[in-house]
Design brief:
The protein contains nine helices and nine strands. By secondary structure, the protein is an alpha+beta fold. The chain has two domains: 100 residues, Phosphorylase Kinase, domain 1, CATH 3.30.200.20; 176 residues, Transferase(Phosphotransferase), domain 1 (Orthogonal Bundle), CATH 1.10.510. Strands 1-2-3-5-4 form a five-stranded antiparallel beta sheet. The N and C termini lie far apart (51 Å). It comes from Chlorella variabilis. Keywords: ATP-binding, Kinase, Nucleotide-binding, Serine/threonine-protein kinase, Transferase.
Length: 297
């Protein structure tokens, strides 16, 4: 099979060309799957250091299949979004390999599991613990936005703990639908992506307008504030132990999100301060221009 000549983001920065994956790393057990990707433990043969290896398809650049071209663009966009990221609350990319129409991303290994598992096991967190988690999330999001990256799929599943049960070290992971670009690009995004319970109203609206518009000029996009809505949902779930928007019917769930109607009706909220509820309310604002920024939150 002919070698993939790219092009690759930033001229192939962090792309290993001097060795094959199997010569550098020993792949072990699968620790996660999603879509067309899987994550395995990867041990550096030289220094015995363990990492995480995420692999996914990378179809040829000259493929005649639209689906394959889109899959390639998505994989390269994820790499582009992660290049250069270096922050205590963001999962970093060490290097990557391209072999046999697949790409292998070598990242730091976090053994604490998803924050979703912690919420499901623990139930609602105290305000003090929720604050510890949320401050780390805000620092990570503020950093990402400062370097021109919008995550677009922030959720409890994509927040990882370094050690099980230890909320003092949390990192944002999975940049599969993240967007990297200039302020002009990041304030005119139109792709509908994210998870229904966490997706911002303006992202849903962008999809409806795209379906109805005759040209791209008719479309209004959305911006980085979509991440802050997702953070509001996360904070609600940390304090309440359940999502602010829920319906068995996806269309009705998305309608509820668009309206931005939620309540602090469960008895669990009686123990939560008005300041914490006010913060949630100022993040779950339908108008993105009136939503809090990471610095304000």
């Amino acid at each position: 099979m002919a070698a993939d000549l790219g092009p690759f983001p930033e001229g192939g920065k962090k792309l290993r060309k001097d060795a094959r994956l199997e010569d550098v790393y020993s792949l072990g057990s699968i620790i996660g799957t999603g879509g067309f990707s899987e994550v395995q433990v990867a041990t550096d043969r030289a220094i015995r250091h363990q990492c995480a290896c995420k692999s996914m398809p990378l179809p040829p650049a000259d493929s005649e299949s639209k689906a394959e071209r889109q899959a390639r663009m998505a994989a390269l966009r994820e790499i582009s979004s992660m290049l250069g990221l270096e922050h205590p609350n963001v999962v970093g990319l060490r290097e990557y390999f391209v072999e046999s129409n697949r790409v292998y991303l070598i990242m730091e290994l976090l053994r604490g599991g998803e924050l979703l598992d912690a919420v499901n096991t623990h139930g609602p967190f105290s305000e003090e613990d929720a604050r510890t988690i949320f401050l780390q999330l805000m620092r990570g999001v503020q950093y990402l936005h400062s370097v021109g990256v919008v995550h677009r799929d922030l959720k409890l599943d994509n927040l990882l703990l370094a050690k099980k049960g230890d909320i003092s070290c949390l990192k944002i992971a999975d940049f599969g639908v993240a967007m990297k670009g200039s302020p002009a690009v990041l304030n005119s995004m139109r792709t509908v992506c994210g998870s229904p319970q966490y997706i911002a109203p303006e992202v849903i609206c962008a999809g409806k307008k795209r379906d109805a518009a005759s040209t791209d000029a008719d479309l209004d996009g959305y911006g980085p504030a979509c991440d802050l809505w997702s953070c509001g949902v996360i904070l609600f779930m940390l304090l309440g132990g359940y999502p602010p928007f829920w319906h068995e019917s996806k269309p009705q769930l998305l309608e509820a999100v668009e309206r931005g109607e939620f309540e602090f009706a469960d008895p669990v909220w009686q123990e939560v301060s008005w300041q914490a509820k006010d913060l949630v309310s100022k993040l779950l604002v339908v108008d993105p221009d009136k939503r809090l920024t990471p610095a304000q939150a």
